[in-house]
Specification:
The structure is a homodimer of 246-residue chains. Chain A folds into 2 domains: 64 residues, Winged helix-like DNA-binding domain superfamily/Winged helix DNA-binding domain (Arc Repressor Mutant, subunit A); 160 residues, Chorismate lyase-like (Chorismate lyase, 3-Layer(aba) Sandwich), CATH 3.40.1410. In chain A, the strands form 3 sheets. In chain A, strands 5-6-7-10-9-8 form a 6-stranded antiparallel β-sheet. Chain A has a 3-stranded antiparallel β-sheet with strand order 1-3-2. A two-stranded parallel ribbon of chain A has the order 4-11. The two termini of chain A are 26 Å apart. Helix content of chain A is 29%, strand content 35%. The first copy, chain A, has 9 helices and 11 strands. With 246 residues, chain A is α+β, with helices and mostly antiparallel strands. Chain A binds a DNA duplex (30 and 30 nucleotides) through helix 3.
DNA sequence: CCTAAATGTCTATTAATATAGACAACCATA
DNA sequence: TATGGTTGTCTATATTAATAGACATTTAGG
């Protein structure tokens, strides 16, 4: 498709090396360099983007930091990792099944849990009284040791007391629900937005600053349509895409 | 929810003023300042983000440039615009209906059209032979005079010859299809990713550089399941969210 | 009509970004 | 084993981003 020059911009608040790093990362994910398994030489990239070679080197250093490339003197800059996990969003969306066989090792970590009164917004979404108790879980999910999502998720406390322990033991919302007697649940709505990563997400998702995050706000209900969970999940945009099949 | 300090990051390739501008823009969209209709004073923001007042001023200047706020000496920084268009993604997703009454004026502009052979990727998606002719439309959509999406969309040329003119006249894909005898079509899949805006999109969508773009890759079929359109649409992430209802 | 609370403007300094050029070190391969 | 292509390192300089402080100007309200 459009090979568009789409050059790089100055004085925009985004450093050139970061723009270039983002572009190269995208090209790698896109398979542009699959033939050689290498990124083009620094000289070539510098000419392509119309910048100094040192600027390109800064970009490549950032990508090396992320573990995406590895520079070898005399040989070139080799592509180490190249992936974009796909998350299908359907009526039966589940994180662990969604990844499927795209990753071998899947982990779900409980970072923090709390019991608190529902805010106005949250109580409306969960169809409970404002101020009614909810359980909040802060979780981190990993695939093949790399963090792929950082979620904040709320459950009505009356119905799902003890879900903290259930999640901590199983590392899975689906399994935790089952332990508490909910055999099935459905995704009724998902809102998707994108923002720049903030401090906490940078740390938890091991991103280099300036990274983009896909935000999904999801509401799950039981089979009778009663809300059981509201979740805000944040995914590194360069590693993840969502697919909606209708 | 978490009032999280979520401070701002240095030496990351993203200037502080841009990070702060992004955060304030998000807060405005989120309705955080609805009570006063104003952004907090520069002093307060500077303390909040842990930066110099001048840095905050740079951020506010950028937002003023975008038409989101307006600073008035002696009074404060007033919120001018505050919106995030919602695009429902369903089996019957249509751009114009999707916007619904969120905007008064809706426009669809044809920037460019071309007839070309289908790439390998495209032919697979449209279920046509590789190299078979397709019509490509480059379109820009606006709501209330502001650009909200920049799309590249392909149609099998054999079936939809003349769709360029039909689109140009009507400004709507749905109407253009109808003119060519296709009364109905369905959205079968949508892939959502997020990237930094490139040069062309910055210009077309009138964004300030460094902006985030939501990318939706969509496949539409006729009621018999035969692919009729593949589209890649780019939306300004700070103006738009997608909602998937299951 | 004064005052407090804002934003506007100016000067000066430091740190981060980007450019420029030269040359060393390393690797594959002819 | 010589050579061309590549990354690594160093020095120097210019531009942009960020901090710091002082003071002017405007507005709203007591």
């Amino acid at each position: 498709m459009d090979t568009g020059q789409a050059n790089v911009h100055r004085q925009n608040g985004v450093a050139l090396w970061r723009q270039i790093a983002d572009r190269i990362r995208a090209s790698i994910a896109n398979g542009d360099y699959d033939a050689s398994g290498k990124v083009p030489p620094e000289f070539t990239l510098a000419a392509q983007f119309g910048v100094n070679r040192h600027t390109v080197r800064s970009a490549l250093a950032a990508l090396a930091q992320e573990g995406i490339v590895r520079s070898v003197q005399g040989r070139g800059t080799l592509i180490e990792r190249k992936e974009r996990l796909n998350f299908p969003i359907t009526r039966r969306t589940r994180f662990s099944e969604g990844i499927g066989d795209q990753a071998r090792e899947k982990e779900g970590l409980l970072l923090h849990s709390a019991r608190e009164p529902a805010s106005a917004d949250l109580s409306a979404r969960l169809h409970i009284a404002e101020g009614a108790p909810v359980i909040r879980l802060e979780t981190l999910r990993k695939a093949d040791r790399r963090p792929v999502s950082r979620s904040t998720t709320w459950f009505p406390a009356e119905r799902f007391g003890g879900i903290e322990e259930a999640y901590e033991k199983t590392g899975s919302i689906t399994a935790a629900f089952r332990k508490l007697g909910l055999a099935d649940y459905l995704r009724v709505s998902t809102e998707v937005t994108a923002i720049h990563a903030d401090g906490a997400d940078l740390a938890d998702l091991q991103l280099s600053p300036g990274a983009i995050i896909l935000v999904a706000r999801a509401l799950n209900t039981d089979p009778d349509g009663v809300p059981v969970q509201y979740a805000i999940s944040r995914f590194p945009a360069d590693m993840v895409q969502f697919t909606i099949e209708n």
